[in-house]
Structures
1.
Amino acid sequence: MHMQEKNKKILFFALLIFAIFSAFLILKTAAIYNWDISLNLLAMQFLKGHISLEPNLDLPVGDISIYNGKYYIYFGPLASIILIPAVAILGKSFPQVVLGIVGLIISFFAVYSISKSFKFSKVDSLWLSLFFVFSTVLFSTSVINITSYTVEAIGMPLILLALAEYFSKKRPLVMGILLGLAMLTRITLVLAAIFFFIEFIKKRLSKKQIALIFIPIMFFGLVYGGYNYLRFNSFTETGYGYHIQDPYPLSKNKEYAERGLIHIPANLYSFFVKPPEPILYFRDGFVFKFPFIKADPWGMAIWFTSPLFLLLFRFKRNLYYVPSLVTTVAIALPIFTWYSIGFAQFGYRYALDFLPFLFLMLIPSLQPKLSKPAILLITLGVVFNCLYIASLWDEYPLLGITR
């Protein structure tokens, strides 16, 4: 038993070093193709007392809305608020992708804390942290410098921190503040509060505790509403209703509807079914060429990026399974009706919003300790992500293959 744990620890550190080295190569490769500074530009405007972007050559081509002749980023303000000190010192050239890296680090420790709360050993908790950081869509979203990615990569870790707090010290005010801050990245994250409300119904939270959770959420909701009103003369308009027309191919999707049932099949296909694209010697034939596959920018099924989630089909449950399931469905429903599907992406990046609750659903299928198949699935997922994220640009830095 002792030797087994020792081998598990050695393999963990070897895989962690491999993943960190790969992340460095992916960051370097991604920077060639995507160097977004939109969040920095908004932070600079905040310093000047403005909330709209300055109309100049630095104006981003995506993720912006126009209203009354002014340009706005249609996400919440938190990411740019966090960047204010760095931008004040280093200017707009500060790499905003640093927020994504910070999100990865926060997620690692939050998942470790959650795993320990469910009585996993230290080494198994480390493995689960490795899985969440390097074998889910969080990895690619955090290391690619695109504003929408970075906003998602900083919002979801706040949900993880709220859950880690719930399963440890259980301070309701702290949980509420974390949930409220998460909402200031993407409004859909407010639905994470459903989990805590169900916990109240299940009598695992008192009336006082649930009130202390929702007070900060309502406060930050008012802050977000005021921010929206200053931008769009409406408390509920976040900017999506005024966003500048998406370029091809997303413009074709939007012709059918911005949000509607018509988009559910494509989103479900991308999340549950879609495989990577084959690399062929000739378009008219079907002979595979090394390295055989590449990422499809329309997404890939979760089983490719995160094969550990296959163990969900064990259908094991605990006290938190149903609250997590209900919250996952509640968050996923509006996402699955959205026209863009997350294009372009590695995996299905919109899953980030409900990923913490999907992870909670997975835990009973992994207990009481990680099995050899679970370790194998984590390893395969980490290696897959490390090898193929850069294939979005037809690059494979680990294999020495470049354009």
2.
Amino acid sequence: MLNDLKIKSLKPREELYRVADHSGLCIEIRPSGSKFWRFRYRFFTKAKMLTIGQYPEITLAYARLKTMEYREQLAKGVDPISHQKKERLEAIKANNGTFRLVANEFMNSRKTQQSKEWEQRRTSYFERDVYPLIGNKPIHEIDSIDIKNVLDSTMARIKKSGRGTGEVKGIFVRQIIGEVMEYSIITKRISIDPTYVLRGYIKQPEVTHARPLTDSEKRELMSKLNTYGGSTSTRNAIKVATYTWLRSIEIRRGKKEYINFEDRTWTIPAVSQADILAGKRNMKKNRMHVVPLSNQAIQIIKEQFALYPNSEYIFAGEDGEMMGKTTLNTALHNMKLEFTMHALRATASTIANENGFNKDWVEIQLAHVSDNKTRATYNHAQWLNDRKTMMQWWADHVDSWGFVS
């Protein structure tokens, strides 16, 4: 057994060595001369070693006391190392917190300022890509390598799903981790944002412009939509997007109050600057936009009103709330269609121009108004009657692909 006199007499060697006390306790002498208390034990036949602390700061009496504590844990089937980690994690949670804890705190702090979609999108990526890797790690211990591993894992998941190469999703995940890190700096948990050095780690993919659908793709779209077994709201949203040339975001955020059945129009209002900052923009460019509705579009919209009488949204999700951001493109993917919703707009533009419709009518219908045009030029009612005629022609043309309204 050891005593203080014997411990002080232990000299360093070229390699570290240990001298036993009893009950698994030993002292480790390192080449530097430092001396550390170590507890050696077996847990389910596996040899393990736990560091108690440095001598003389940790006395012999205290080291023996901790040894007895660890042996009591072993008698109860508890691994001392795992127990120590658990206690340490709980202490961190009570002070700085884990990434998951801080992320939840950050999300709660922004709830009143942001849209439900903002919250749902971040929660989805945190749960799926971030928390499994760093959720339980103390916020101040997370470094750039940890975050790089999360980004690599996210991109690998997207590639495996066959829905792209993952760069866009990877960049978004870095951004939302960065939001939590910035919040941690503001709340004095950390002093440096470890996502900063990863800006530029993922290269933005080259933008590929949507192409018009081929004749066979038009027929395939109609055939698969007519027999689509998913949500009626999703199917109808894709059909109305085809009939109206609206973007996915405009379809998803479309509210019943925007529809005037008497005037046969869908009017998308501009929103306030506060709404834009909260992620509630209705249009890509924040202008009022009037969309003339064909007979076919009106019929489907009336069906949606009847399907979701208590929802403010025309094309509500199953819970009556706004349809999810990826719902429409996911539906196309699940139908094995090799194009996105934006291809519907490209198709409409191409065919309308090829059939001699006024280029300005087409551009206004697509809400493609260049910034150098004056507000007077972009009169929301401009050529409305002409566009009504064009959009009814278009709807009849779409039905010729095989659409069943």
3.
Amino acid sequence: MYESFFGFFEKPFSTTPNTHYLYPSVQHEGVIRILEHGICERKGFLLLVGEVGTGKTTSTRELLKRLGDQVQTSFIFNPLISTLELLKTINKDFGCEPLGESIHDQLETLNAFLLNNDTQGRTAVVVIDEAQNLSSETLEMARLLSNLETNTHKLLQILLVGQPELEEKLSEKHLRQIAQRIQIYCKLFPLSFAETCHYVSFRLQKAGSSPLLAFEPVALRELYKISGGIPRIINTICELALMSAYAQETRVITKHIIKEAAREAPIHVHYS
């Protein structure tokens, strides 16, 4: 709707995870590099945590993109699945066809695949998003899967991605065996004020912004105050702000426009 008015070829503040718009902050780039190292070195269990909207899913997709053909990948989007469903999904993603429906059949097929995959010099990774919602039984199966190994390395790398509640869950007594196996731990934090300003500029440039479009300095300060530096909230407010500016036929985003956008935002923001 407003793209041509601002000179965009697409909307710059979509909340859908898109690696094209991954902001290369020091912390995001660092997290991706550490996780990439952990997978390539076959560390086994890896953990990525962060508040909602800090860029976990986008960072994970960029990680898998960089790994490319080096790994076979299974991405679990729905953590509310049973142990059997987890195994079936992993086998399906790896292109395996178990002879039976039982957990034993699924594990036998998966193990054979992983061993063959290893002989070809490749590893495999299972990414489980929103892992704080996994049941204790499914987490225990993930632990058992991490037992699939040779004398020198793990055959399957498991990356758990979730909100801070995942850390709390793994600290529970009956799940400590899993926590003790985590070899790589990464955490994403909200952006600083300077990073928030760069983030907005980065996304505008990626979308082909007109040089006539400008965010006033006080508008950026207000945006940071309201969003707390959370990328998803920044995107939501900026999207609404651009729509408001378009309606007013202005290419200057003011503090007032940001405050009004925050009031209209269909999400919880740090606004008072």
